[in-house]
Prior knowledge:
By secondary structure, this protein is an all-alpha fold.
Amino acid sequence: MDLFVRFGATVRRLRMHAGYSQESLADLVGMHRNYIGTVERGETNISLENMHRIARGLRISLSALFAEMEGTDAGDDRPVPTSVPTTRSSGTDGRAALLRPALDRVAEARQALEDAVHQLQYFDAGGDDAGVTRSRPRRRKSR
């Protein structure tokens, strides 16, 4: 079987087990949902970087994803490894697992905002602003 088809079948199996739709996985990893579909069908020559992004979205290491792929044929119904979380469980744990990716993105956005605020405070305090151009306010012409 083609390498890309095997990889795609593995991604599809792990995605479905984790409870993600193609669209939700695509949103999680910053890709288009159509691209996830082409990956799962083995229609694209996926880059190593995109493989890594998908593996992170599935909460599995890239090496574990490759190890799964090595033992996978299309349509294989083997059990999913324990390193892949099940998000379809009942109760609070299932809801928390579904919210975890969104909370991670919120935390990343918060950190980026804190970094930006820190930088602005540094520049306002007279920090080194080499390479930063500031525009001067225009003076109104007096009549």
